[in-house]
């Protein structure tokens, strides 16, 4: 490695930030700029633990690095706290898209929970419209700044613990022609199986609306099973603990022999994408079964076994990261090269909630970009 965004290959340097990327798992309220939080906090009358952008950014990353998903989620009280007006939502969404563009993202799906942004009188529909207005502005900014065509979709998310699944599913369906491309559930995973929102998932299935579900991050195999069976999930949000259904039977210096359980086989054989977020998975304790270092992450095991792995940031503010940084970390840890990076992006392109024609076009754009980089 030669820096945060450059990859050294055969004596040449490639700027990872310039490579075309797909972002599938990226939370709107986890990607605010610290300076924006400072400015919006004044408008919202919200007290902050730090008073400079640098110090505030460091506070978020320190607080989030707890090894506990519930503690990690506590940091969102500040970010959602400054996202309670239409102008604030539009600004955050616009800057979010600008930052994706700077990271080389050409297609992204932004997930967020509208029910968290109603404290100042906005309706669910108004908050979705405000975020879409910001996304549209950000796309226009990207075209002027980088000249790249950037496509962004919203993933409307329901919070497991609030039992508003049907209401949020209906919201997603109302806006499916206005930027919303899919549905998600998030929040505390343990004790809140996807089956709890079965009526919402039934409604979405009846309307042929795509779903991804946070599963296999803090919960175990039963959570993943419920996401697939009850949620009809086409992707797994994180899904890292699927590795619990993979057994190491033996190994020597050259080979490792494994066996897959039925659930792992199903996910692999159906090519259900895993929205893996390496840095976040370390912070939340999602990989504590295997260790506490990135080298312990089952990412490489899943990749080598042929699962449809994708690389994601989860929350860029809390993890102090970007797709460029995540790819750099994986290259340092597992020795991946640009050909591997391309596989990860093509995996993500195939899993986007777009038409098959648009997925094929996106894959072509990715391959063309990597060809230019010398893959």
From TrEMBL:
Domain Adenosine deaminase per the UniProt entry, residue ranges: 20-367
This protein's UniProt keywords: Hydrolase, Metal-binding, Zinc
Alphabetical list of Pfam families matching this protein: A_deaminase
EC number: 3.5.4.4
Cofactor (UniProt): Zn(2+)
Keyword Disulfide bond: no
Keyword Metal-binding: yes
The family this protein is said to belong to: Belongs to the metallo-dependent hydrolases superfamily. Adenosine and AMP deaminases family.
Protein name: adenosine deaminase
Origin organism lineage: Bacteria, Bacillati, Actinomycetota, Actinomycetes, Micrococcales
Gene: add1
């Amino acid at each position: 490695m030669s820096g945060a965004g450059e990859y050294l290959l055969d004596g040449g340097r490639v700027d990872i930030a310039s490579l075309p990327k797909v972002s599938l798992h990226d939370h709107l309220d986890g990607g605010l700029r610290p300076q924006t939080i400072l400015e919006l906090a004044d408008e919202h009358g919200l007290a902050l633990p730090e008073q400079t952008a640098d110090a505030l950014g460091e506070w978020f990353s320190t607080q989030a690095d707890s090894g506990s998903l519930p503690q990690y989620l506590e940091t969102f009280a500040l970010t959602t706290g400054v996202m309670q007006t239409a102008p604030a939502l539009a600004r955050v969404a616009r800057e979010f898209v600008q930052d994706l563009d700077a990271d080389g993202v050409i297609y992204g799906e932004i997930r967020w929970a509208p029910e968290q942004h109603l404290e100042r009188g906005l309706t669910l529909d108004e908050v979705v419209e405000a975020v879409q207005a910001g996304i549209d502005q950000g796309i226009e900014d990207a075209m002027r700044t980088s000249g790249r065509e950037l496509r962004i979709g919203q993933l409307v998310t329901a919070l497991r613990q609030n039992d508003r699944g049907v209401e949020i599913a209906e919201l997603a369906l109302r806006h499916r022609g206005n930027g919303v491309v899919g549905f998600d559930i998030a929040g505390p995973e343990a004790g809140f199986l996807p089956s709890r929102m079965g009526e919402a998932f039934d409604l979405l299935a009846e309307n042929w609306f795509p779903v991804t579900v946070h599963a296999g991050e803090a919960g175990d195999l039963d959570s993943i099973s419920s996401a697939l069976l009850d949620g009809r999930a086409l992707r797994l949000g994180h899904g890292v603990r699927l590795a619990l259904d993979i057994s190491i039977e033996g190994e020597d210096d050259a080979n490792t022999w494994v066996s897959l359980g039925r659930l792992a086989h199903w996910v692999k054989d159906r090519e259900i994408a895993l929205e893996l977020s390496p840095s976040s998975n370390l912070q939340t304790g999602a990989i504590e079964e295997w260790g506490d270092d990135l080298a312990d992450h089952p990412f490489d095991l899943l990749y080598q076994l042929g699962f449809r792995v994708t690389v994601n940031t989860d929350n860029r503010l809390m993890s102090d990261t970007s797709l460029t940084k995540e790819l750099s970390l994986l290259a340092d840890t597992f020795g991946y090269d640009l050909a591997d990076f391309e596989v990860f992006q093509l995996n993500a392109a195939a899993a986007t909630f777009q038409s098959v024609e648009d997925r094929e076009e996106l894959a072509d754009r990715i391959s063309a970009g990597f060809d230019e980089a010398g893959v």
